[in-house]
Amino acid sequence: MGERARLTASELRVMLVDDGTWESWDIPVGAPAATSDGTDDTYAAELERARRTSGSDESVSTGAGSIGGRRVAMVLSEFEFLAGSIGRAAGARIVAAVRRATRERLPLLAFPASGGTRMQEGTAAFLQMVAITGAVTDHKAAGLPYLVYLRHPTTGGVFASWGSLGHITWAQPGALIGFLGPRVYEGIYGEPFPADVQTAENLVRTTVVDDVVEPVDLPARLSAVVRLLARRDEPVAPADPIRVWPQSARRLEPDDAWACVRATREPGRAGLVEFLAQGESVPLSDAGPLRFSLSDFGGHVALVVGYDRRSQADGDLPGPRHLREARRAILAASDLGLPVVTVIDTPGAELSVVAEEGGLAAQIARCTVELISAPVPTVSVLLGQGAGGAALALFPADFRVARADAWLSPLPPEGASLIVHRDLDHAGEMASRQGILAGRMAAQGMIDAVVDEESDAAALSAIRGVIGRYLSASPEPDAGARTRVPAVDA
């Protein structure tokens, strides 16, 4: 499927929905509403032409069907009908579908492709965006998934309402996506809108959109997400008790700290990608230094928010926009009643003028707040490097597990050496003095479980097992719950 290909609503529906399962929820629309000056002959003629050219009676179609055997509700824009614009009839159709999906407790999938509000109907059409937003908000408040796939193009009020509210938001490759349409911008300001800003790929880079997904890849990705989310309500057999730091395990001493730091920086060391591959997982975002996935831990599906070591090794370090996205992901997990598992493996946050002006410090603090106040079980995994505020932002959790040679410190040891000794020569000494290793942190009550397996595969498998056992013992999510802040013994 080429970039910017414009699939019709029916083509996309046939591509996604299991054969023979589609049920339309649409009620035929009536005569067009009068325009602001009371005359609607021209508008009625436009609607009739739109019906003939698009084969649809309105700019959206709604209904329910199965994807991978799981029933879902769907709202699909038809761009060929007056550029997918939303008038009163289309807005009412969307609201009715969202409300029905909520009543029937179905996941809701939205596939907008629209120029925004229907200008022929003016303010009354514009305010439909509020009604749609209210319905979507209620759907999410009921703990039901809302997934969005932004098609080419999606602009204006549609993007500024139901197109931007997804628990997960993917986009079509090359799609034009933005609030202000390029034609409007050029007409108002007399110059073209800057190129490559309102594109799906740029919005992934700026973390407005979670991932770019080819239409042909949608069925498998959506099926996997819906399947894992459906497990939230499935019973899980009790697990064996958690074994915290076996007494027979090899304990790393402070003098080992610098060697451990170097080991966590080895290019071939396993990280987030390998951690997810050890169990059934599906990526929600698949690019950049901070990534999100659904993953099954012994029958318990959790949202994983983690740092990717390979992206960071290439110089793409986490900054304010990534932590804003992490906060949004944590809120989405809270909406859906999903546990949150954070994976910490970072040499540190982006250090730049852009990061400072973007409020890096504030985003670290706010991300920490989101984890502390999350009403769902939270687990943090100290997998390798844990340098500075980027590591701190994902560390607070109800339960904390670490690989034995992982470490956490205010700065990399080299940075600590520069502050204390004004050189880099004392990095090893600072690593030993600061108590940065997982074992030392466990002895002080800051880590709950340490996994001491020397091979990557054994360590990752053991960590996943510990997480599964912890989640089996965790109570159901409580909206009044608060995350335990790490204690430090004197």
TrEMBL record:
It catalyses: N(6)-carboxybiotinyl-L-lysyl-[protein] + acetyl-CoA = N(6)-biotinyl-L-lysyl-[protein] + malonyl-CoA. This is Acetyl-coenzyme A carboxylase carboxyl transferase subunits beta/alpha. PANTHER family: ACETYL-COENZYME A CARBOXYLASE CARBOXYL TRANSFERASE SUBUNIT BETA, CHLOROPLASTIC. InterPro entries: AcCoA_carboxyl_beta, Acetyl_CoA_COase_a_su, Acetyl_CoA_COase_Trfase_b_su, ClpP/crotonase-like_dom_sf, COA_CT_C, COA_CT_N. Acetyl-CoA carboxylase is a heterotetramer composed of biotin carboxyl carrier protein (AccB), biotin carboxylase (AccC) and two subunits of ACCase subunit beta/alpha. Keywords: ATP-binding, Fatty acid biosynthesis, Fatty acid metabolism, Lipid biosynthesis, Lipid metabolism, Metal-binding, Nucleotide-binding, Transferase, Zinc, Zinc-finger. PROSITE patterns: COA_CT_CTER (PS50989), COA_CT_NTER (PS50980). Belongs to the AccD/PCCB family. GO terms for molecular function: acetyl-CoA carboxylase activity; ATP binding; carboxyl- or carbamoyltransferase activity; zinc ion binding. It is found in: Cytoplasm. One of its GO terms (cellular component) is acetyl-CoA carboxylase complex. It holds the Pfam family ACCA. Its cofactor is Zn(2+). GO terms for biological process: fatty acid biosynthetic process; malonyl-CoA biosynthetic process. The keyword Metal-binding applies. It comes from Gordonia terrae C-6. Residues 1-244 form the CoA carboxyltransferase N-terminal domain. Its EC number is 2.1.3.15. Residues 231-473 form the CoA carboxyltransferase C-terminal domain.
